[in-house]
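tl;dr need the bound structure. longer version: we got a ligand (histidyl-adenosine monophosphate) that a collaborator sent over and nobodys looked at where it sits. i said id run it. heres the input, straight from their email, havent touched it
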Amino acid sequence: MLQRPKGTRDFLPEEMEERRAVEGRLRDHARSWGYREIATPAFEHLELFTVKSGEGIVSEVYAFEDKKGLSMALRPEITAPVLRMYVNEGRSLPKPLRWFYFADCFRYEDPQKGRYRQFWQFGTELIGADSPEASAEVILLAGDLLRATGVEFTLQVGHLAPMKKVLAPLAPEARARVMRFLDKRDFDGMERYLADAGGGAGGPGWQAILATLRELTAARTLPDLWRLVGDIPEKPAIEALDRILRQEGLSFSWNFAIARGLDYYTGMVFEGFAPNLGAENQILGGGEYRLARLFGGDDAPSAGFAIGFDRVMVSLRNVREIPVERWPVVMVITQGKGRELAFSAARAFRDASAGDAGTLLGDVDHRRRKQIMALVDLTEQNMNKKMSHAAKVADFAVIIGDREAAAGTVTLKDLHTGDQVPLSLEDAVTEVMKSGPR
Ligand code: HAM
């Protein structure tokens, strides 16, 4: 038997329905903030991800050569593609741009619960705004979206400037390495690295740097931060951001050790966690960055985040069933003269739920109406078998045999109660529309 590739998953209808229900809430909330959906290709030129995404991501990229020998990659994340798209197509649009996406990403990681090789991100990017309000909007939107899913979460907000100031005496290479250790909260590894690098990368005074980094990691308030790093130029912006987030009642904590695994961040950074998950408990990551100029565009200041959709689903399922919209299911079962009426009878149920016109243009409101799923029985079995199959997959059977065909009626059978009544097709449709949740 062939198996699916390691780190990938199959989704049966029940799980897909749950995923779509949660995704739908994310979409609706993002749109209510004025963010509009975009899409980019599943693969890009490899270069897009090697320029500035950072060592961690680059080592995990699914890279391949196409038939012309060009280096391509499956997208490991979507911020770089979105900024590439902005430079290609979006530069003349009125800024700031508010975009969101929901798409799969690919990373060659060691799979475990909550860590996959194909996973989905719901992300937003705000392009062309640079103010404490822009940072605040992105963080508040992230909080709103996570709340909309029903997941229990905490938010940590940080800024790279204080850390950069502490690391300034180090050589650039050592700075990048230390940031990786910080991202993984690996102080022992960091200490070993700085000790080994000695006077080279570590340089004189690395012990003092390490001690300050430990204090920075522990700092949870702005006064603590200023005591450690003094008056940095970013102080007014950080204080303004703090004021807005508090005014909006957002529950968050400051964490100035957030280093992020990607190299493109420039200022505010933030992460979300689900306390009921194990090792892979980070459900969101984002921050301010500048990528447009790197891709040949203007220097548009940008900020955004991505929610790890699969982790949110794991976290939600740990606590409760995810409510999905259930449509009543009708199975049309015909015999003899009734057989030629099967598809038109099923259509009557579908049309009733889709609205009069039944087309997108004629009925833009159709999403708000109750919908019916109408199936036509396709088996060549006897009536008993047909009925027992219907009872497994449907809520109602609509039976049309010789008798019904002659009388111009149908028999509507409620498969949960066993009650059945002869009705006109129209009345049967009305009856099913009236039925409550099953
Ligand atoms: P990231 O932190 O690499 O950021 O990924 C965002 C989220 O995707 C993570 O917090 C995590 O929940 C989820 N995630 C990452 N890797 C996996 C995996 N292997 N399996 C399951 N879930 C995973 C970014 O990708 C940035 N592009 C976010 C961003 C948008 N920054 C600015 N704009």
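gonna send this back to them w/ a short note. The CA atoms of residues 148 and 387 lie 41 Å apart.
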